[in-house]
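quick one before i forget lol
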Amino acid sequence: MSTGPPTAALDVRALLATLDRHAVRYTVIGGIAVQVHGHRRTTKDLDVIPAPDEANIGRLVRALAELDARPRDAPGAGPPTAQQLASAPTVPPLTTRHGELHVMRDVPGAPPYADLRARALVVDLDGLPLAIAGIDDLIAMKRASGRAADLRDIAALTAVDQPER
């Protein structure tokens, strides 16, 4: 249960445009990725895995500053630093001017970032290139999580691939 202040309504396009302006390399996972792969469901946040190199983390820090990103459960704290983003096993959920953003680092079931990105589906969202975790990687992450919502996503995603009878 969140104890922080309510976040702005999710505006995925605005979040992604900010990351794009700062040339942040990332791959989208979570609910948005599930939607792109054909399962229509709601989500209240954007989940991304950033490329882990130092230069990319620096660009991500600048994008988070522009977004006024703050830890959801520590509203008095400032945006994460490059050191926190590079070394923290878990980055707390962030509130931003455009909704909640989850910057994920060590995601159970996820391959190394280079492999995740190489297998990503790249789509165009109103002129923004968007790397979405490939369906097999997405299912592996959801299976490793084991949460009820993730298991429902797996069932829906695998049903999408099944021919109708």
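fyi Helices lie at 12-21, 30-36, 54-66, 82-87, 113-118, 135-145, 148-160.
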